[in-house]
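Friendly challenge for the regulars: who can give me the structure tokens for this chain first? No prize, just bragging rights.
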Amino acid sequence: MDAAYDSLRTFVEDFVNEPTTMPWGNRSLLFRDPDGNLVNFFTPAAPSEAAARPEAAAPSVEQ
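First reply, four minutes later:
Bragging rights claimed.
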């Protein structure tokens, strides 16, 4: 995702957000095309990156 962002920076003018790891485990990048359409690039985050985000962990259930 970060490599795609670096490549897109040369011609995309309107980034909505830079590469971000979402709580559900996707790495996402949002930008607008020249017509104003929202484009969402995403990919599963590396397991180590997703595990490093505490909010991405499943809640524990006490019995």
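Residues 2-41 form one domain. Residues 2-8 form the longest helix (7 residues). Your move, everyone else.
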